[in-house]
Design goal:
Number of domains: 2
Structural class: alpha/beta
Strand order of the largest sheet: 12-11-8-13-16-17-18-19
CATH superfamily of the largest domain: CoaB-like
Largest sheet: 8 strands, mixed
Radius of gyration: 25 Å
Shape: elongated
Number of strands: 19
Length: 404
Amino acid sequence: MAYLKHKRILLGITGGIAAYKSADLVRRLREQGADVRVVMTRSACEFITPLTMQALSGRPVHTELLDYSAEAAMGHIELARWCDVVLIAPASANFMARLTHGQADDLLSTLCLAASVPLLLAPAMNQQMWLNPATQDNARLLTSRGITLLGPADGSQACGDTGPGRMLEPGDLIGHLDHVFQTNTLTAKKLVITAGPTREDIDPVRFISNRSSGRMGYAVARAAVEAGAEVVLISGPTSLELPERVFCQQVVTARQMHDAVMNEIRDTDIFIAAAAVADYRCSTIADQKIKKTDAFINLTLEKNPDILGEVASLSPPPFTVGFAAETEALLENARKKLINKKLDMIAANLVGDNRGFESEDNELQIIWKDGNIKLDHAPKEKLARNLVAIIAKHIHEKNSAQTH
């Protein structure tokens, strides 16, 4: 279940005997490579200790709404921005009722209202409580709001009753979580994605490059695979782990990246240029290390090929998405690039002052011909999934318009 690798899962635990299963659930999630943070209600702490969940998750457990150690004492906002999915397991009848009515009187309920990610509940309660009309009405209303209910299962219960109300087993919950990230919105589409910096040699030991880490491009590649696409990642030098189920070509220079892209582009549906390609290269590369002699040294630079512009000029071109890293006038400069290069879409962000390149988080302005949307500050993995979802929406709308 590789879809959970590197995913940020927030596990909420409410009061109920099924809370003992949550310990095994955390252990299994971490075995799948997920990053797990746990939020517990006060009632949950009566059934299983925060210390147990901290030991299993490897992270502090959150129990209080007003967290003075959190930024601006708003831990629920930080956690809501951090996570990719919220799973409440077990979800008690009381918690379901409070969530139905939008109550926000503890950390977990407040976080559920603040999070803009998939919310899944694994109900666990006495069978008669589950079958009660009030609980059934709450379940239907929550489902109508887009919240997913996983279970409950039917069987023997701790109270001695038999019937519906058992929390699903951890393995079953992990299977459902795995499917959350398989959107299939780009099934049968081929994507070519560039990522990372390029390096342009000065001599055998020196080169011109930039601060790009490649994280955004690699995150986009993973998100595209989750969307069902065939993905080719053409990467400059990075220290990142290669994404699974992605065909990766590693290059060094801008010209190598250009050649790799043009070899792949003819049967490509979508091209995403996330790489920070060097605009210039040395016209002459010294055969030997240049010695430090004079106070100044002059390097003659010449332009590298414009990979993004060349792809967008193909006839017909793939759906072409550029990136714009700017230090000023973000929207103005990004829109100029969109128009001048005849792109379908551009993702723009500010860089510098620990923003953008060398950070695990970012924020993006997604711009197209007649619109734009801002993706607020979040982990790059989450931004990548949002970007891929926006691209898929535009692709489907474009295809629908052509059909009619």
